[in-house]
Amino acid sequence: MKLQLALDRLSKGECLKISKETQNYIDWIEIGTGVIKEYGMSIVREMKEKFPDKVLVADMKTCDAGKHEAIQAFEAGADITTVMAFSADRTIKDTLEVSRDYGARVMIDLLGISTQQRINELINLGVDLVSLHYGKDMQQDGSIHLNLFDLIRSDEKLDVTVAGGINLDTLPAIIRENPSVVIVGSAITKANNPAAIARKMKGFI
Ligand SMILES: O=C(CO)[C@H](O)[C@H](O)COP(=O)(O)O
């Protein structure tokens, strides 16, 4: 099980500083959607140069123009780009095709998806990496619930990641669900001592 650091609502300087401080405890680094909107693909390029050994996730949250946006992410050095699960099948197929050309991967963000039918369709399209996601705005009305995992049947050959306000209190229950990757943003990035929290989380994992 891997720990992914999500860098959201941060300046470039903060992204670099927190990644450096926590690099011994994290496996994957995600450049958040808002950070990409602020700095463009240059921050993905810079983060890959600074942290070449980390799996770099560009949280593009693509929902259309899949081929173009996947090329943007992979050309900048991302190992993984994200695509929304509700996108047209054509968008999912195009991004998967581009990812194969680059030897990279696509993570499908399941935000808003509540049916097993869409999961089956995604698998049939060739998807092998998904993100169970309890959204930032939803977190204002409650915290992540384990029933998110009900969407995934144990016999499915999917790498499952999980995100959404995960903190030291909720982490143990999440780990028991055995996801491939636990994605943590604000619990680390907004902490007084990000490295201490990341170290504790990696210890649990
Ligand atoms: O994709 C995201 C928001 O859309 C975040 O990266 C994800 O939710 C993790 O951050 P946090 O732990 O702060 O919720």
From TrEMBL:
Lineage: superkingdom: Bacteria
Keyword Phosphoprotein among UniProt keywords: no
E.C. code: 4.1.2.43
CDD domains cross-referenced by the UniProt entry: KGPDC_HPS (cd04726)
Pathway(s) served: One-carbon metabolism; formaldehyde assimilation via RuMP pathway; D-fructose 6-phosphate from D-ribulose 5-phosphate and formaldehyde: step 1/2
Keywords from the UniProt entry: Carbohydrate metabolism, Lyase, One-carbon metabolism
Pfam families, A to Z: OMPdecase (PF00215)
Domain Orotidine 5'-phosphate decarboxylase: 2-201
InterPro entries: 3-hexulose-6-phosphate_synth, Aldolase_TIM, HPS/KGPDC, OMPdeCOase_dom, RibuloseP-bd_barrel
Enzyme kind, highest EC tier: lyase
Record field: catalytic activity: D-ribulose 5-phosphate + formaldehyde = D-arabino-hex-3-ulose 6-phosphate
Family: Belongs to the HPS/KGPDC family. HPS subfamily.
Protein name: 3-hexulose-6-phosphate synthase
Keyword Lyase: yes
